[in-house]
Amino acid sequence: MPGVRQSLAAVSLLAAGSAAPAAGPADPYAAPGPAPALSAPALTARYQSTERDIGRALATAKRVHDKDRAHALSAFLASGRRFLAFDPRGSGRAVEVVGDLEHADRIAVVVPGADNTLANYDSPKFVGGGTRALYQEARAGAPHSRFAVIAWLGYDSPSTLSTTVLTGRRAEDGARGLERFLAGVHQVNGDARFALLCHSYGSVVCAKAAPRLAPLPVDDIALYGSPGATVDRASDLGTPARVWAGRAKGDWMRYVPNVRFAGLGFGTDPVSPRFGALRFDAGTGPHSAYLKPGSRALRNLALIALGRTAEVTHA
């Protein structure tokens, strides 16, 4: 164990040195306006309110010559896109719906990990692009299913070049937000069953949220590319949901020490036999390619999202 602890300490010191806070200008982006509470009657008004917030943020991005943000927000306003939440401050938050939320039988929520921002949101490697790939995969395999996917960048995603990514502080905030959000979606559609698809640091968010979600109809929680779930065993998550775990053979996360020491790290590897999760075959890709079209990981995650768990191939 000393060698593992030294490795984790070294990672911590490296991150601390590469992410020292620097003084900078005040954030030019304003807080979002008040939005209607999540409910079926108010859903359209909620979409409209969020669209107005995105429009105001786009105007600010153009005014301050924030080209990357302006490009991303222009795409957010494309016809047919619908956001339930949006906050342009900092690196940004956004929650997007793909599919018919009100009438879905199954709703998958994609919870992303580190380095997700508004500027890279639509990249295939990040939550927006990955969510659309998941929806398209599910629709191709089950064209008549009533299915929706939510890209939930609803917390402050940490940077991999910071000590924040080694602790659960951001995950605690994210877990509380995820609990509130899913309770609201349940108000919109009380018949749908949920699946949580949780990548990398997002798996820590889902693990911390899991016991709080027990009253909600969450059938499946998939942890993939995970650094750990802050518990020793899947049964310790306090959820009646099926807990899945997968790691691609090319994922660098396999080199991260799976310990908890001095407030750093997240414990047992979820793909280890000791953890006791259902292991799905995540293929051979890198850390950021679990939702890449054509990948084995995407196929299995889509099956989990659809509730077709008997068809999932196991590792």
Helix content: 25-40%
Radius of gyration: 19 Å
Strand content is 5-15%
Helix tally? 7
Structural class: alpha/beta
Global mean pLDDT: 91
Number of strands: 8
Unreliable runs: 1-22
Largest sheet: 8 strands, mixed
Can you list the strand order of the major beta sheet? 1-2-4-3-5-6-7-8
Straight-line distance between termini: 28 Å
Order of helices and strands: HHHEEEHEHEHEEEH
Shape field:
globular
Structure description:
- With 315 residues, the chain is of the alpha/beta class.
- It is built from 7 helices and 8 strands, in the order H-H-H-E-E-E-H-E-H-E-H-E-E-E-H.
- Strands 1-2-4-3-5-6-7-8 form an 8-stranded mixed beta sheet, with helices on both faces.
Strand and helix layout:
Layout: H1 2-18, H2 43-63, H3 67-76, E1 82-87, E2 93-99, E3 106-111, H4 127-141, E4 147-153, H5 169-188, E5 193-199, H6 201-209, E6 218-224, E7 242-246, E8 278-279, H7 296-306
Helix pairs in contact: 2-3, 4-7, 5-6
For this entry, give a set of tags.
8-stranded mixed beta sheet, alpha/beta, 315 residues
Give the gist of this structure.
The chain is built from seven helices and eight strands, in the order H-H-H-E-E-E-H-E-H-E-H-E-E-E-H.
